[in-house]
Input
Amino acid sequence: MARVRALSAREVEAIKKPGVHWVAPSLYLQVRDDGTRSWLLRYMRNGKTHWHGLGPVRDVTLQEARDRAEELRVAIRRHSAHPVAERKAEVQQAKAMETSEAPSFAECAKRYIAMREPEWINPKHIYQWTATIEQYANPVIGDLPVDQVTANHIVQILEPHWLTKTESMKRLRGRIEAVLDWAKVAGYRSGENPAVWKGSMAHRLPKPSKVRTVVHHPAVSVADAPAVFAAAAGKGSMAARLLQVIALTSLRFTEAAMGRWGEVDLVAATWQIPGPRMKMKKPHAIPLASQTVDILRALHPDGAKPDDLIFPGQKRGKPITDMAVRKLLRKVATPTTPANVTTHGWRSTMMDWTAEHGLDVAAADAALAHKAGDDVTVAYLRSPIFERRKVLAQQWADYLTGALG
Output
């Protein structure tokens, strides 16, 4: 069958008979009995034909109508658009806005953030909350009265980015849920919260853990840890000393490698790492086991200045590189250790050892500084959790060095 050619502007202009006339793929011209003319988009959705107006001919040119029709046709084919349903929703939303006395979602979000702001020590939280809501939620529900927000709105916000920005969307869902909970308590809405995961979004979106693949850092096994540590201890290089300290303290590479002598108190056996160097950007205090103190004391040069690096590399003013330490680790690793083992993996090794031996898991988790809300800061050196970490740090060091029976 020969391909039908789209009509030209002159041919469209010549159509006078009332009715609906084909112009181009998915694009039609509607001529009414009174002579008025308008563009229509025809499309199929779930086996049903839908007609969507694209505007009167006097306001929209043929080329504009064709471009818009093609744009919508592609979006509909990808299931990212349903013009008729969207227009119906817009009309319903407009009616709701006229009758509802509740404040908008955007206004509620602003009030909620202002209420929580005194609790958030890190200004980053305020920025992240505000930015994600303004970028993703407000374009869909920002102007909508908060009592009119439905599960369909939440899906409309999250679904387009769920597979590509899963972690960000997961956090955004929680933020929307919190705002809607606040609105309910404030008396602005009633009923179930449409943004909750269980019972609502769990039936509409893929489970986050099934979407985002969590990559675990290859690590030395708990059983092999003492042998690997001993092999590193037998090396006399700066990289070996750094590797030992990372294993003993469970610090991330940069947190340890960028250490300065002014941060360490060998008498009090503590290492106070400034916030900017930590992943969570909060100061982190490390209790040092006696073995760690011995390693650092042996490294401490006479006349060392507070800003001098603890683990200087070959380049002046630069620390030992991650590559050098990783290369050494793989050289001293046991045959059963993964070939691509990383220094970061020592963190999971320590956590596995803690769990396997029924020790203080909470102290171990605090030692890893996973949470932005940890009380593991310079101001809490005398806190109960820090005292428990001191005990755990010594137990772990005794295990690595063979001092623990």
